[in-house]
Design brief:
The chain has about 450 residues and is an alpha/beta fold. The protein has two domains: about 210 residues, Enolpyruvate transferase domain (UDP-n-acetylglucosamine1-carboxyvinyl-transferase, Chain, Alpha-beta prism), CATH 3.65.10; about 210 residues, Enolpyruvate transferase domain (UDP-n-acetylglucosamine1-carboxyvinyl-transferase, Chain, Alpha-beta prism). It is about 30% helix and about 25% strand. It contains 14 helices and 24 strands. The strands form six sheets. A four-stranded mixed β-sheet has the order 22-23-1-24. Strand 22, helix 12 and strand 23 form a beta-alpha-beta unit. The protein starts with a strand and ends in a 17-residue tail after the last strand.
Length: about 450
């Protein structure tokens, strides 16, 4: 049965929240464990539906898994893989599971992996993934909705991406771990999650240098060189940015713990430009507050270390009530403005011109019925809801469940008035009109 979230706005945040392990990292670590014919233990694993899907994917390949939700730990024994096919049933639900392609090719010299699914935020082609694996000696083809990759022997090579691709960088990196010789990835993605994956692989015995820069060098090792390891996932920078946005939108203050501030440098700078107050209490704890009307600002989403596309919708929600006119440019995904029609329902004044959104701040937003269209759009609607007059009802929570652990509990820990209920039992007050929804 579907559920929805009801939020009563204008309750200033007060309290604290602790950031969970990074979704976009732990899923890749789980895939990377397939390279090792041994047991790996991953710690600081968030309880998310995406994690459950990835467990199904790797279990279907023959890996034995144990998920201790209490201790946030997953144990993966990949000593006896029995299958090289990741089925459409699971991969179509979550794009991140596509990175088992590189691990399977590296371990088994063959893979049949369904084309990826996930949030419908725009076209995310697999051509970079295929180009990289072909450079290493794979024969790749697409048939019946699957990518089929085969090789007799992976060999190190130089792979240069036209633009940085996180998933392609991860797939090539994993495949190259067991390739003969040296692989150089040029114009590699530089996200913190890439560094986390590299550190995990190095803990198993891989030889990797340069992760976090535009050039990653992988010197292949033998299968016998890879051993089981224990590894703790880094904190989720997107979850941290989400709670920063929610606290600021509420007009209150809150403490955010277990955060790596240097992973959010540009985003934090833009929040300061808007007039928010952000103070570092210790290396992993931040105090965020806001008690006045925010100021307009402009930004363009870019690959890391640029402005994160995953935080674009949340920043836009903040700008809806900012003083002045802001321009947001989405340079990475063509369909990542799907939250805008929902913000219109709340009274936002936004004009869309292709990849640009022009936001004229309004005096206030109004609570109403809205629906999550993807993971980050759902978080953006929560951000808008805490700043809105009255109650906001947010449907399609399955999107939010993909990326936020204990979301309602963490909102309540920040004094946000939020409840989660079954769709068929809820009622919501209709407050205000939406006559100023568009210019």
């Amino acid at each position: 049965m579907s559920e929805k979230l009801i939020i009563k706005g204008l309750n200033p945040a007060k309290g604290e929240v602790s950031i969970s392990g990074a979704k976009n990292s732990v899923l890749k670590l789980m895939a990377a464990s397939l390279l090792c014919a041994d047991t790996c233990i991953i710690r600081n694993v968030p309880q998310l539906s995406d994690v459950e899907i990835m467990l199904e994917v790797i279990s279907g390949l023959g890996a034995k898994t144990k998920y201790d939700k209490t201790n946030k730990t997953i144990e993966i024994d990949s000593s006896n893989l029995t299958n090289c096919e990741a089925s459409q049933e699971f991969v179509s639900k979550m794009r991140a599971s596509f990175v088992v392609l590189g691990a399977l090719v590296g371990r088994l010299n063959m893979a049949r992996v369904a084309l990826p699914g996930g949030c419908k935020i725009g076209e995310r082609r697999v051509n970079f993934h295929i180009k990289g694996l072909e450079a290493l000696g794979c024969e790749c083809k697409i048939e019946d909705g699957y990518v089929v990759a085969k090789t007799n022997n992976l060999k190190g090579a130089t792979v240069c991406f036209d633009i940085p691709s996180v998933g392609a960088t991860e797939n090539v990196m994993m495949a190259a771990v067991l390739a003969d010789g040296m692989t150089i990835i040029q114009n590699a993605a530089q996200e913190p999650e890439i560094v986390d994956l590299a550190n995990f692989l190095k803990s198993m015995g891989a030889n990797i240098e340069g992760a976090g820069t535009g050039q990653i060098i992988i010197t292949g090792v033998k299968q016998s060189d890879l051993k089981g390891c224990e590894y703790t996932t880094l904190p989720d920078r997107i979850e941290a940015g989400t709670y920063m946005s929610i606290i600021i939108a509420s007009g209150g203050s809150g403490i955010i713990k277990n955060i790596f501030p240097n992973h959010l440098t540009l985003f934090t700078g833009k929040l300061l430009e808007m007039g928010a107050n952000i103070k570092l209490i210790d290396p992993n704890t931040m105090e965020v507050s806001n008690s006045k009307k925010l100021k307009a600002m402009n930004f363009i989403t870019q690959p890391y270390p640029g402005f994160p596309t995953d935080l674009q919708a949340l920043a836009m929600a903040l700008l809806c009530c900012a003083d002045g006119i802001s321009v947001v440019t989405e340079s990475l995904y063509e369909n990542r403005f799907m939250h805008i029609p929902e913000l219109w329902k709340m009274g936002a004044n936004i004009i869309v011109n292709k990849k640009h959104a022009i936001i004229k701040g309004v005096d206030y937003l109004v609570g109403t019925q809205v629906k999550s269209t993807d993971l980050r759009a759902g978080a953006a609607l929560v951000t808008a809801a805490v700043a809105a007059r009255g109650e906001t009802e947010i449907g399609a929570l399955n999107h939010i469940d993909r990326g936020y652990e204990n979301f309602v509990e963490k909102l309540r820990g920040l004094n946000i008035d939020a409840i989660r209920i079954k769709e068929e039992t809820s009622e919501i007050s209709k407050i205000g009109d939406l006559t100023n929804a568009r210019v």
